[in-house]
Structures are given as structure tokens and as C-alpha cells.
Amino acid sequence: MRDPRTSVAEVTALVATDSALAATVLRHAASASRASGGAMTLEAAIRRLGLDELTRVVLAATVGGAAWAPGPLALLRRDQWRRSLLAATFSRDLAPRRGVAPDQAFLAGLLHDFGAVVVIACLEALAVEPLPVMLETTWRRLIEDLHVEFGMVVAARWQLPEPITEVIASHHTPQGCMRVHRPLVQLVAIVDQIIDILDREPGGVAALSEVPGLEHDERFRIGALMPKVAEIMARFEAPVGRDAVSSIARQTGTIEGCWPADFAIESKTGAQYRACAVAPGMFAFRGPAALQPAWIAELTLHCPPDTITMLAHIKSCEKTSTGDHLVTAQPFGLAGEEKGAWLRLVGRTRQADHSPA
306 and 190 in one domain? Predict the structure, then answer.
């Protein structure tokens, strides 16, 4: 990309040396254009994406490659990759009004927490004995304590540009970074808080009013991005595989404070499920196809009189004794009519459970 003499044919030849990367590029190009034109060559796909978008795809595919490998901490690696993709997407979209280059913001969001992936990989690779089984929160505290230090080691070895290094070092303390890079560091710090709240709050996009420094119109931009988020997550999703024996204490498929429910749920791939429980910020359902925990899925809930298409953060997926899968999920980034329909569903389910027999 830095060499003005580079031709598309040369780039195509380089991408073609990695079959997994070539498949990713073809998938992104097909998604970028809904027009049907039969099979697409790799060169045509690269021309359709453009070299700037191709670079973003390659960076994301390369950084995320380890996220889908099996291992005792695979769940945490997938979840960290999910957060990195979200951070890159949100950072790029919010960058222009903050005077930050979108491409730089994308890379900063993608790499700011990469030290966490390195910590997890080291824990898995260097353990002489099998890792102990601990609560997810315990593992997360350990990773949180180490991820900035490990990220700085990677930044030095990879000779990352100074702005990206500053983001890795200071995204938790943006007030202490170099002034020249502060807009970029502050942007990534705000995006980190956005993801934390969307992961934690069933209130959806409306809860982003809690984020200091996030402007009113930026909150609506995040809400408008949600359909695009579903598409981006789908592009980078790998097939559901069998993880190694996990060192993370299992989450059960039960939901506290829930009410029984029964309605149809459909995934974007067309897999059919039946809801079995609803709570204010969670729901559970059963079906024949597994969904990847620690990932975002687009689901359509057919709950008359409403039909709700939403993003859902898959929290657990367990195979049952009957051979189907019990999935728990949390609505992610609800806004507008979808949020209203979800609140109506919760209200109807609660009322039905308390109605006289």
C-alpha cells in the first residue's frame, strides 16, 4: 500500500498465497455488493473493495486469526476479538467529527486491547500443568492487570506507529497521553466505555447517555450503526468448532428471575429455535443448531403481535441430553422500535406468568 508502483495484480498474487485470507476477501467483496453476477475472481473482489478497505480486511483477519482456535481460554479470546471488532467499527465511524483519520481510528480500535489476546495465548502456551478452572470474572481480572504491559511489548516488537502505541499505553488513562495524540486516545477510551455499557445494560443505546464526553448525536450514530455491526460480525465469524476442555467455570443455561415463554426465533442463517424463557435483559431458547458463545448474532423473534430483529450477545450454548442446544442471549444495542417491542414482549411474558390459571 505504501508503494505507489504496486499494481492490483501484485496485490492479488500476494493475497492468493493464503487461501483462508483469499476466502475472507471474497466474502467481504460479495457482502459489499448485493448485485448478483455469478462467481467472482479474487482480482475482481479486490478491485471492488479497493485497496484501503482490503487493508482493513487483511488487518482484521490477521489479528483475529487466533481468536477461533481451540484452547482452555477460547471463550475469552473470542470475546476479546468481538470487542476489538466493535471498537474498530465504532472508532472509525466517530472519527471524522473528532478530527481523527478514520483509517487510523480503525487500526487503533482494533489493536488497543491486543495485549489481552497475547496474555491469554501466553497463559495457554506456557502452562506446564492444565490451567485451573476459575470463574470468568477471575480470569478477566488477571488479564486486565497484564494486558497494557503485554500490549506495549507487542507494540515495540512490531514497531507500531507512535499514535497506535500511545493508544495501547493510555486508553485507560487518556489524560496522561501525549497531547498530539490525545484526540485519538480519547476516542478509543470513549468507545471502550460504549462497549462496556452495551454489554452490561439491557437499556441498549439509551444507556450511552452515561458515557462522559459522548455527544448526543454520536449516541444516535452508534444506534444507526447496529445493522452494519451485524454484517461485520457475520463476515468474520468462523464455523462453530469444538473447544478444548475449558478452564472457565461453566455458565448454566438458566436465567435468574425469568418467566416461561414459547415463540419462534430465527437466526440470520435460517436456523429455527423456540424460546423457553424471558427476563428483562436476557432470554433463552432451544434449537438444533449451535451458536457461538462470546459472539454477536442477528436473531428475529416472532412474538405476536410483534416481530423483533435484534443483535444478541450469545452468553452460553449447551448441548442437551435430547441432542438440541440450549442458548442464552442478551439483547445488544437495542434502540427505537426494536427496544419498544422488546419491552412489550417482557411485559406480556411477565403478565402471562402471573395470570390466574
Answer: no
Domain termination site, one of 11, 39, 62: 62
Question: Tell me: the pLDDT tens digits for 215-267?
Answer: 999 998 998 898 888 888 887 777 655 556 788 887 655 688 899 999 999 99
In a shared domain, residues 92 and 170: yes
pLDDT confidence bin for 193, thresholds 50/70/90:
very high
Q: Encode 253-265 in three state secondary structure.
A: CCCCCCEECCCEE
CATH number at residue 196: 1.10.3210.10
Tell me the C-alpha to C-alpha distance, in Å, between residue 333 and each of 134, 214, 219: 29, 16, 11
Q: How many CA atoms lie within 13 A of 293 on its CB side?
A: 23
Task: Answer with the residue of higher pLDDT: 335 or 252.
Answer: 335
How far apart CA 339 and CA 206 sit, in angstroms, is: 10
Q: What angle do CA 63, 69, 73 make, to 5 degrees?
A: 100
User: Is residue 243 assigned to a domain?
Assistant: no
